[in-house]
Amino acid sequence: MRRASEGVEAGFAAATGAAENVYAELVGRVLVVDDSEVFRRVAHAVLSATARLRPFGEAGSGEEAIRLLPDLQPDLVLLDVHMPGMDGVATASVIRRESPRAVIVLVSADPDGLDEARLSTDAVAILGKADLRPQTLDDLWLEHGPSRRD
Questions:
Q1: Is residue 56 within a helix (H) or strand (E), and if so which, with residue range?
Q2: Which runs of consecutive H residues, i.e. helices, occur in the chain?
Q3: What is the predicted pLDDT for the residue at 109?
Q4: pTM of the model
Q5: In which band, very low, low, confident or very high, does the pLDDT at 3 lie, cut at 50, 70 and 90?
Q6: Residue 4: pLDDT band by 50, 70, 90 thresholds?
Q7: How confident is the prediction for the chain on average, in pLDDT?
Q8: Integer distance in angstroms from the first to the last C-alpha of the chain?
Q9: CATH homologous superfamily for the domain 28-149
Q10: Beta partners for 107?
Q11: CA 91, CA 61: separation in Å to the nearest integer?
């Protein structure tokens, strides 16, 4: 015979576990990759204002992002297209190969004419840096996040 408290405890554990799973699925860890420290700070502030994404790491170059990738395992990478050394397109190709489930969003001060870069990297979007908004990032995450990749 089960005690009433066992049922309550089991129900609480199930509800808590379900809530944790939903939260984990909705909140994405973001790696920001940009050679501009100013933009990385801006991106951090924008991400902190989103409902579903959190800044998790940052890199000042494509090479640094690739080194951090195995440890951070980001869900989303916000990646500048134009960087010295390894540019965003080359970096995105490595990220796609090493971390195929990561959502890649390219950013550029001037995104016009970069649709080919987006397509060649399998990025979900290319955004102008001036157009970076919490709602835009949340919408991209809802559309392309883990529940859509399975």
A1: strand 53-59
A2: 4-26, 37-48, 62-72, 88-98, 115-121, 134-144, 146-149
A3: 87
A4: 0.79
A5: very low
A6: very low
A7: 83
A8: 41
A9: Response regulator (3.40.50.2300)
A10: 80, 127
A11: 9
Selection from 38, 112, 43 nearest residue 79 by Cα: 43
Residue whose entry in the numeric block shows the structure tokens 């500048």? 80
The one-character DSSP state at 85 is: S
Place of tokens 């990749």: 149
Provide the token pair at 49. Answer: 């204002």
What would the two tokens of residue 60 be? 């000042």
- Which residue's entry shows tokens 């709602």? 135
Instruction: State pLDDT tens for residues 29-65.
Output: 999 999 999 999 999 999 999 999 999 999 999 999 9
In degrees and rounded to multiples of 5, residue 80 shows phi and psi of -70, 135
pLDDT score for 55? 96
Percent residues over pLDDT 70 in the chain: 73
List the domain boundaries for the chain.
Answer: 28-149
Per the listing, tokens 């502030």 go with 45
